[in-house]
Specification:
The complex is a heterodimer of chains A (291) and B (276). Chain A has 291 residues and is mainly alpha-helical. Chain A folds into 2 domains: 59 residues; 205 residues, Orthogonal Bundle (MetI-like fold). Chain A contains 11 helices and no strands. The two termini of chain A are 36 Å apart. Chain B is an alpha/beta fold and 276 residues long. Chain B has a domain of 86 residues: Rossmann fold (3-Layer(aba) Sandwich). In chain B, the strands form 2 sheets. Chain B has a 6-stranded mixed beta sheet, sandwiched between helices. In chain B, strands 2-1-4-5 form a 4-stranded antiparallel beta sheet, covered by helices on one side. Chain B is globular and about 55 Å long. Classes of the chains: A mainly alpha (291), B alpha/beta (276). Chains A and B meet through helix 8 and helix 9 of A and strand 6 and helix 2 of B.
Chain lengths: 291, 276
């Protein structure tokens, strides 16, 4: 407590007869205020700035760009009936988000089904990594949308082509992270496996899988992030029901308010997906054995 | 009948590793025999190849030339008859202490049994064996804890329990107490002495602690400095069992052994860094 007084820059302003205790309480109150400002007020100020810039742009552009208030009113209408269905080209925002999520889940699920075992094989066996690494390095930087025409050609349909695009963009992070995870399994664990003479199945289930799980979940998180980015672009091209198509449709209707709503919705859904997967990853990460 | 005086036999073993600068000779011309039930420590400065030699006995690595024979059979790979306690305990952090030990027990005694001529044991018996091993190192109360929740000394004890639970013919310990504080180390040394007296195991232990070597061993094998380390001297420790660290502290014979090892390590074999 004494040191708190001596080290405080404010101590010189205080009258000498003030007790240490009162001073300490004041400092604690200040610290709490500061923490409150940082965690709650700062983000709000950030959003307020965004709204201000937006409002300014809207005012300057005349009627071409909607103001935040108009957009908010429109959002209220859009979200008051999210699940209406007036045929394939006019459905509520709920259905659009649902269709997009369904495509992502399908493409992503298939990618996990193929990518995670492939990652295990590539990580475990050198011949496999030598065989596939150059191919992965070549194909990974390609924009997933470049695969869309191939999907359309092979699957002869917009919906499977979009799923195929998601599949391609999600598979790389999963293969690579799983393979890296397998290669980084501490050699101590593998020595334990050798000394105990464990079967390949036991090695997989008791050592490799739990050791690789955190890496794998990182791959899954990256994949979901990319998949959600790509689905919007893919749906703009393929049409049908989906949040990406909705953006494009509203552009054709020149309904800018709905486009802005869509942008916030896409951001929010992406944020939620990320958050869920971080929680999942945290639940499965074990402390390292470093002594 | 197997020859108990040559239970473990290391015959003219060389170990070299390829490096970009050519071959690196880690061990050369190692000859050593260990009797059944003997406690042998390997001592030497760090980097001299003690652990390399232990890994060879464990079968984790293969010698570049020479042979290692255990119980009349050549060592070609790791096996449950040679239990290893690793320097950094190497417990699986996602398993509880019980499960870590059970993994070993299940492999050696469970179905399909690895011990020739033995029936695979049932679940109850496997659980009993696991509990018994944990009891031996005094960790019954921590059985359901994960390695992250217990202290370094306790982790090392689980590692010892895991090795013991396999009922190995040879127990290999790689600086098992190196990372522990002096008090915990002394406690575990005493426990180890008790367990070895009880199980009559043959033990090969790597250490760089002179007191530990003299207190525990029947035979101290002193390695010269690497590269190309070899056995410089073998000291037979003829102190009666059971040994107590308190009474040995005053023992003239104990001091003689201690002096001999220190003399070897610090007078005849300077530390590597000093030579460089």
């Amino acid at each position: 407590m004494v040191s708190a007084v001596f080290h405080s820059p404010a101590s010189s302003d205080l009258p000498g007869d003030q007790t240490n205790n009162a001073h300490l309480k004041q400092r604690q109150r200040k610290a709490r205020q500061r923490a409150f400002l940082l965690t709650w007020i700062s983000p709000l100020v950030g959003f307020a700035l965004l709204l201000a810039v937006w409002a300014l742009v809207a005012l300057k552009s005349g009627n071409a760009f909607p103001t935040p208030w108009e957009t908010f009113k429109q959002a209220y209408i859009v979200f008051s009936d999210p699940f209406y269905n007036n045929g394939p080209n006019d459905q509520g925002i709920g259905w659009n988000i649902y269709s997009s999520l369904k495509r992502v889940a399908l493409g992503f699920g298939l990618a996990a089904l193929v990518g995670i075992p492939a990652g295990f094989v590539i990580g475990r066996f050198e011949w496999a990594s030598r065989m596939f690494n150059p191919m992965i390095s070549l194909l990974r930087p390609v924009s997933p949308l470049a695969w869309l025409p191939i999907g359309l050609l092979v699957f002869k349909g917009a919906n499977p082509a979009a799923i195929w695009t998601i599949f391609i963009c999600s598979i790389w992070p999963m293969i690579i992270n799983t393979a890296v995870g397998v290669q980084r399994v501490p050699s101590d664990y593998m020595n334990v496996a050798r000394v105990l003479n464990l079967s390949e199945w036991k090695i997989m289930s008791v050592i490799l899988f739990p050791a690789v799980l955190p890496y794998m979940l990182t791959g899954v998180r990256l994949s979901v992030g990319t998949a959600w980015l790509v689905i919007v672009a893919a749906e703009m091209l393929t049409g049908g029901v989906g949040i990406g198509f909705w953006v494009w449709d509203e552009w054709n209707n020149l309904n800018v308010k709905n486009i802005i709503i869509a942008i916030f919705v896409i951001g929010l859904v992406g944020l939620l997906l990320e958050y869920l997967l971080i929680r999942l990853a945290r639940a499965f990460t074990f402390e390292d054995i470093k002594s | 009948m197997q020859d108990n005086s040559k239970y473990l036999e290391i015959d003219n073993v060389f170990q070299t590793f390829p490096t970009p600068q050519g071959e690196f000779v880690a061990l050369k011309n190692i000859n050593l025999t260990v009797q059944k039930g003997e406690f042998v420590t390997l001592i030497g400065h760090s980097g001299c190849g003690k652990s390399t030699l232990l890994n060879l006995i464990a079968g984790l690595t293969k010698p570049s030339s020479g042979t290692l024979i255990c119980a009349n059979k050549e060592i070609t790979g790791p096996g449950p008859e040679r239990g290893v306690v690793f320097q950094n305990h190497s417990l699986l952090p996602w398993l509880t202490c019980f499960e870590n030990v059970f993994l070993a027990v299940e492999r050696v005694f469970g179905p399909p049994s690895k011990k020739v001529g033995k029936e695979p044991e049932g679940k109850v018996s496997l659980i009993q064996r696991t509990n018994h091993a944990l009891e031996m190192v005094g960790l019954t109360h921590a059985a359901q804890k994960r390695p992250g929740e217990i202290s370094g000394g306790m982790k090392q004890r689980v590692g010892i329990a895991r090795a013991l639970s396999m009922e190995p013919q040879v127990l290999l310990l790689d600086e098992p107490f190196g990372a522990l504080d002096a008090l915990t180390r002394a406690k575990l040394q005493d426990e180890l002495l008790g367990i070895v007296a009880q199980t009559q195991s043959t033990v090969v232990m790597v250490t760089h602690d002179v007191d530990e070597a003299v207190l525990l061993s029947d035979k101290i094998v002193m390695l010269t400095n690497g590269p190309a380390a070899t056995i410089g001297e073998v000291l037979n420790v003829e102190l009666a069992h059971p040994r107590s660290r308190v009474s040995l502290a005053q023992n003239a014979q104990y001091q003689e052994y201690r002096k001999a090892v220190i003399e070897f390590l610090y007078t005849r074999q300077h530390h590597v860094e000093k030579m460089a």
